[in-house]
Amino acid sequence: MLTPQLVTLLSDQALIAIIVVIAAVLVAGTAGLVVSRRRRSQLPQATQPARLDTAEPTVGEDAEEPRDTPTRTLEDTELPAESPAATIEKPESAQGRLVRLRARLARSQGSLGKGLLALLSRDKLDEEAWEDIETTLITADVGVAPTQELVEKLRTRMRVEGVGGAQARDILREELIALVDPSLDRTLKVSRKEMQPAVVMVVGVNGTGKTTTVGKLARVLVAEDKHVVLGAADTFRAAAADQLQTWGDRVGVRTVRGPEGGDPASVAFDSVKQGIEEEADAVLVDTAGRLHTKTGLMDELGKVKRVIEKTAEVDEVLLVIDATTGQNGLTQARVFAEVIDVTGLVLTKLDGTAKGGIVIAVQRELGVPVKLVGLGEGADDMAPFDAEQFVDALLD
Ligand SMILES: Nc1nc2c(ncn2[C@@H]2O[C@H](COP(=O)(O)OP(=O)(O)OP(=O)(O)O)[C@@H](O)[C@H]2O)c(=O)[nH]1
């Protein structure tokens, strides 16, 4: 028989037993979970390939959820106003630039200047030596007629004045300077007239460095505290206007542009109008040179000039020639000179050629002075041309 005490004792023991069993079950369960978690975390990721959803969109399904607001275009996006003053550069003044760039010129033209000097300083100047001098000059693109003229003068002076290393250098220097012609007026007409800005058109075959020249010239003028406006009349190549504007932005100069493929004459007109309104000192107009026929070129450049002249006089037409193109450059120069009155030449890339003689040849050919020379891709690597400094650099 179960007494009440026994019942109480039994139920206490049963209670304890139940608690022990529950505790054991709980402990075992927790341990199992920990172990399985550890195992999972120890498995290398690579062995757990993500499950791929292989359902592919079918025809008519949109790639993304339809939306009820239209996608914003680039034009709609407002850019934060930029403070122009923060990025404006202070260009180097043009004065003394040729002196800074002299070493570069000397390096590229070493074979011309030093080659001539070495030949002239020989103990015996025989026919062979004179022939070598002629070849050196022709190879440096001086041109046949100026070469013969120079050799003739050198021969006479060396005979009359006697030969010696130091004298040879002086004679050569004098005769080269005479050939480059220091008497030519190389001043750029870039000063404001009574009521109007000076207008400069920059022309030349594409790739010669026209846009770069306009940009560099703008810097020269800004360094002289001149107020400049740029005209991107090279509407042929979209990037040309961007390129020009970048040059302008760097020195805080406005660039007037038109639509891509638009009428260059109308952009030129607008830029001059802008220059007049802003009372600018100078308007520099970049033009396209990508014209294959002389008639096309004449039509375009002639029209640009005529349209500008409705409101202002064109003060300078600068023809840009790539010095590395040699005879080709001369041929191009001739064509341009036939279609427009060129007032000055810009010889670019003189740093990249040993043929500095092109300065002499092209001036002779066109009867127009070289006014500027490009001596590198740097923003201030363009200098006003000076006959004496140029020859000194050749003979350095
Ligand atoms: N080394 C050197 N490179 C130059 C000089 N001048 C211009 N260049 C380079 O020549 C290349 C052509 O210059 P651009 O100014 O684009 O020529 P462009 O005549 O305006 O050409 P288009 O716009 O295509 O008609 C650029 O890479 C310039 O950096 C120079 O004096 N020396």
TrEMBL record:
UniProt xrefs under InterPro entries: AAA+_ATPase, P-loop_NTPase, Signal_recog_particl_SRP54_hlx, SR_rcpt_FtsY, SRP/SRP_N, SRP54_GTPase_dom, SRP54_N_sf
Binding sites annotated in the UniProt record for GTP: 204-211, 286-290, 348-351
SMART domains per UniProt: AAA (SM00382), SRP54 (SM00962), SRP54_N (SM00963)
Every SRP54-type proteins GTP-binding domain range: 369-382
Main location: membrane
GO cellular component, one term: cytoplasm
SUPFAM superfamilies, sorted: Domain of the SRP/SRP receptor G-proteins, P-loop containing nucleoside triphosphate hydrolases
GO molecular-function term, one example from the UniProt record: GTP binding
Catalysed transformations (reactions): GTP + H2O = GDP + phosphate + H(+)
Keyword match Hydrolase: yes
Mode of membrane association: Peripheral membrane protein
Any one biological process term the GO annotation gives: SRP-dependent cotranslational protein targeting to membrane
Assigned keywords, A-Z: Cell membrane, Cytoplasm, GTP-binding, Hydrolase, Membrane, Nucleotide-binding, Receptor, Transmembrane, Transmembrane helix
Assembly notes: Part of the signal recognition particle protein translocation system, which is composed of SRP and FtsY.
Function in brief: Involved in targeting and insertion of nascent membrane proteins into the cytoplasmic membrane. Acts as a receptor for the complex formed by the signal recognition particle (SRP) and the ribosome-nascent chain (RNC).
UniProt name for this protein: Signal recognition particle receptor FtsY
Organism: Kribbella capetownensis
